[in-house]
Amino acid sequence: MLKFVKHHMETIAGIEIYPLVSFVIFFTFFLSLFAYVMLMKKNHIKELENIPLTDND
Amino acid sequence: MELEKFSYDNSIVRKFIIATVVFGVVGMLVGLLAALQLVWPSLGFATDFLTFGRIRPLHTNAVIFAFVGNGIFAGVYYSLQRLLKARMWSDMLSNVNFWGWQIIILSAVLTLPFGYTTGKEYAELEWPIDIAITLLWVVFGLNMIMTMVKRRERHIYVAIWFYLATFVTVAILHIFNSFELPVSFLKSYSWYAGVQDALVQWWYGHNAVAFFLTTPYLGLMYYFVPKAANRPVYSYRLSIIHFWALIFIYIWAGPHHLLYTALPDWAQSLGVVFSIMLIAPSWGGMLNGLLTLRGAWDRVRDSAVLKFMVVAITCYGMTTFEGPMMSLKSVNAISHFTDWTIAHVHIGGLGWNGFLTFGMLYFLVPKMWGSKLHSPTLANFHFWIGTLGIIFYAIPMYWAGFAQSQMWTDFTDDGFLANPIFLDTVTKLAPMYAMRAFGGAIYIIGVLVMVYNLIMTAKAGSFQKEEPAEAAALTPVYTPHKGEHWHRALERKPLILTVLALVAVSIGGLFEIIPTMLVKSNIPTISSVRPYTPLELEGRDLYIKEGCYNCHSQMIRPFRSETERYGEYSKAGEFVYDHPFQWGSKRTGPDLAREGGSKLRKPNSWHYNHMLDPTILSPGSIMPPYPWLIDNELDMSLTAKKINAMRTLGVPYPVGYENRAVADLQAQADAIASDLAGSGIEVASDREIIALIAYLQRLGRDIENEVETK
What we know:
The complex is a heterodimer. By secondary structure, chain A is an all-alpha fold. Chain A has two helices and no strands. The model of chain A is unreliable at 1-6 (pLDDT under 50). The longest helix of chain B is centred in the first third of the chain and has 36 residues, at 194-229. The mean pLDDT of chain B is 92. Chain B starts with a strand and ends in a 12-residue tail after the last helix. Among the domains of chain B are: 1-109 and 125-156; 534-705, Orthogonal Bundle (Cytochrome Bc1 Complex, Chain D, domain 2). In chain B, helix 2 crosses helix 6 (194-229), helix 6 (194-229) packs antiparallel against helix 18 and helix 19 (534-545) packs across helix 26. Chain B has 26 helices and four strands. By secondary structure, chain B is mainly α. Chain A binds chain B through residues 3-6, 8-9, 11-12, 18, 22, 25, 29-30, 33-34, 36-40, 44-53, 55-57, and chain B through 79, 82-83, 85, 153, 155, 157-159, 222-223, 226-227, 230-233, 236-238, 240-241, 244-245, 248, 262, 264-266, 367, 469, 485, 487-488, 491, 507, 511, 515, 518-519, 521-524, 558, 571-573.
């Protein structure tokens, strides 16, 4: 009975590459994002975070 | 540098504020009616347009798209102008956005109670309204992006990124989920069928929560919390990670709504993994919001605005922890189809969206009308009664969810279901349903107090339509300083940012949706599963029209407790002709996937009497009566068209069958009518009830003659 709900994807050619590709995408993306925010300059951050508070409102 | 003088458009914000308040009250009152109907079914007044199956979609649509929708626009139109130091690009488009949105809401009110529905949760509106929503959304996006192009602030603050992601993603979700083939002006069939339809629908449904109820409100949080606390956000670095991680991960999580269903395993697992990962960005965002108040907690005591915001963010934290937990298969086995889900969404709806909206309104109205809040005492009262309302709503629903799940899965020592009668597991919940309605009612009392307070506040001041402002124009050519990071350039370019957000949210969608399109050839078809007969098809349309899916699932999970109760678990191959799928998400009544199968099959007369008045056969039932199905003549004018439409969608009706369809329909109807006559029930064969009976008797039968094929 379980064959009705399992093995749906096995017939797709090259399916094994999917987990690998997704891992690489994620790892690279988040690592570079993390590196970027860590390397941001303090004064630039100050400028950005104060945008809502400087609208003379 | 020379300062340019300009003014912020406050009147568009005022319009959206009024609409938010009005539709908040209306949407919540409709919700209260639905809640009360589950305690006293007679509150449907035996009229078709007030039954639970039609009122509940009205409630969800009103609260999501009318209350929260207008709230989003109010907050975005206010904050966007100020964050960019620019007036909205086009007043005309702003007004088209406002009036168009209200017309769409009106058209929902004029269609949903009358049974015009696509039968897909949170996307019930029919195709002409879907098109109108698409156009309106483009108007909103265009106006927003053009305002960014004309801005006087070099950098684009993180709140606006969230607005952009909202615009882009809601557009994709809405368009892809709304692919439907029109049959008439207000009737269409979903382009997808069965498993595919379910996956697309919950990819949409889940991300409607993500990108309509969450990302725009996070944007509002990043603007209004620092504003109200008068200090910058706790960590701007964190907000960048929060943004990218959230939109990147959220889009994958949809399949967690379909755990243990006939959806392929790989998609279910994908949904689970990404749902667990979501805790990180969600809590990062929540902590960023809460910690913005570091060193300012004393102010929370005196400021109703901050109180509402703190509870809103806390509720956000609770739901975003609970959601991933509910995505674990073992937990989901308990929570799914029960009131636990209802509790979960109302922590989000009442707490996160509701309270953040109220905080924003208490902040904006005194500011825009140039007065002081009429009564801080009443605002405090609203805060406390609202908080109590959430508690009184949620706790009974959690209790009901656990209790019912327990009753469904209990076995006696002899190995039989302890509660073989489904209704027994419902009647026991009546006190919980009553307490939930009480919680909702006091929450609404709080909202009404707010309405009074805001009106008095506005009366005491005078509304400033145009708020003068000045800022230096951006120099057309900006020379980036040496060694500048690429992301900084990105923060200056709204279009590139938009495209990148689009890419981030598309990856997840593509990875899930494309294989599903391929799945069709991978799903073992079951040769005994045949298209519906014309009468059954008409009956199915009545099932959709009455919103039966709001209370009845058609999806038996592979648990012993379910196969004992309902029969063989549901297979993907059984739904290949279901445009749209009707798996449902809540069992206020029993599952109907095998209602016509040998285990559950009942005589036609049972169904007739049950629809006439459910309590005749099931004393204590909270299902509303459907007497009009017996009086109404079945509309057969579209039958041929429906057969044609289904064939276009891939249902193998032979060519030319549309010409014989009505004759076949009548023959099958006559047979059912004469069977009913044999049981002493005289009813004409051309009544709607006959079609509905035909459909219910068909459910789950095909597989019993199953011959496996590939």
